[in-house]
Amino acid sequence: MKKFISVAMALVMSLGMVACSGDNEGSDTTKGDATGSVKEESVDFEKIYAEKPNGELLVVVTNNAGEGRDVWLKNLASEAGFNLEIVSLGGGAATARVIAEANNPTTNVIWGPSEDQFATMVEANALAPFVPEWAEDVKGLSKENGYSWPYEIQPKLLVANPDQFTEETAPKDYKDLWEKPEFHGKYAVPTAFDGNTNRAIIGGILAQYLDPDGELGVSDEGWEAIKAYFNNGYKTPKGENDFGNMASGTVPITFTFASGLLGKMKSFNVEPIVIYTEVGEPTNTNQIGVVKAKDQKIFEESLRFANWLGSADVIGAYAAANGNIVANAKAKDQMDPFMKDVADKFKAQDADWTYINSMMDQWVAKIQLEIY
């Protein structure tokens, strides 16, 4: 393990990604640099992970706090010896907070945003190098950056009411929704554009029409397609729930993020048809990272907690309780059986998500001004 960690950290340093503002010579993990920040380039991860939690209060910012998940995590973490304050924010807001506080952080661990959102935090020099013991168990699921690691795989899924559709009569692709009249008015479309899921649905559609000569990198056909998608769909008003509408058959087709599916199924007492589209599902990984710190004890506790949180036993228990598709290969057997079936059947849409996400704000602005 020491050999692996040493190699990994050497790679991180060779890429010039270690974010430290002090002199590299004579670095010591027990001291701060001239600005008071912990020096990170010679961290002995194995030694830190081998030590018991020290009880320092950790502020964990996450978009995973809903539906009692914050209570679940605090209780389990407390049993393990960790002392947490959980701050609930959306993925975008959590990312923005960590970046805004890069020079004066008030958080210690960030859990939940997508790999592209973590890339922006790395670029902003807001995260500390972090190599968990379970790094090999999530290898290949996302581009490794030495700072954040995936704990779950998050496809966005189309689902349909089982009383109104069969697998044969349900749509096979997003294009069916607006191209086939039998689905018009029967599917929900995004009504907000700040959440990762809604943006991924838009990105998954426009990804099929990329054109470097087109407006904002999208062909005319693509803009007509997204216009038809919204015009023929149902915009769920406030006071209604799109999944509830699907369950009742009022609007029998909707979309959801995978980690929310099981909870919604239980809430609305329905087992929907999961539509595995021909082009594949818009998919990302959600990740864990450690925020740079000025206090050595808090920094080491943050590393211990992040390492613990993504471990097979903990993230497997989390998936069993909440219905997530785990990234850690050693935790797959703990997944809920329904979600394990989803994990086995879905395929990730082949798309350049880094580019798509870089264009999303401009695409959303055009949709809001001219289409929606």
Can you describe this structure?
The chain is an alpha/beta fold and 372 residues long. It folds into two domains: 31-152 and 285-336, D-Maltodextrin-Binding Protein, domain 2, CATH 3.40.190.10; 154-283 and 341-371, Periplasmic binding protein-like II (D-Maltodextrin-Binding Protein, domain 2), CATH 3.40.190.10. It has 14 helices and eleven strands. It has helices at 2-14, 45-50, 69-80, 91-100, 115-123, 174-179, 196-206, 220-231, 242-248, 258-268, 296-309, 312-322, 337-345, 353-371; strands spanning 57-62, 83-88, 109-114, 148-160, 188-189, 210-215, 234-235, 253-257, 273-275, 283-290, 325-326. Strands 1, 2, 3, 4, 8, 9, 10 and 11 form an eight-stranded mixed beta sheet that branches. Helix 3 links the parallel strand 1 and strand 2 (83-88). The chain is globular and about 60 Å long. The relative contact order is 0.17. The model is unreliable at 1-36 (pLDDT under 50).
Full CATH superfamily name of the largest domain? Periplasmic binding protein-like II
CATH class of the largest domain: Alpha Beta
The helix-strand sequence is HHEHEHEHEHEHEHEHEHEEHHEHH
Average pLDDT rating: 89
What is the total tally of β strands? 11
What is the annotated CATH architecture of the largest domain? 3-Layer(aba) Sandwich
Q: Label the structural class.
A: alpha/beta
Number of domains: 2
Taking the alpha carbons of the first and last residues, their distance comes to: 53 Å
The name of the CATH topology of the largest domain is: D-Maltodextrin-Binding Protein, domain 2
* Number of alpha- plus pi-helical segments: 14
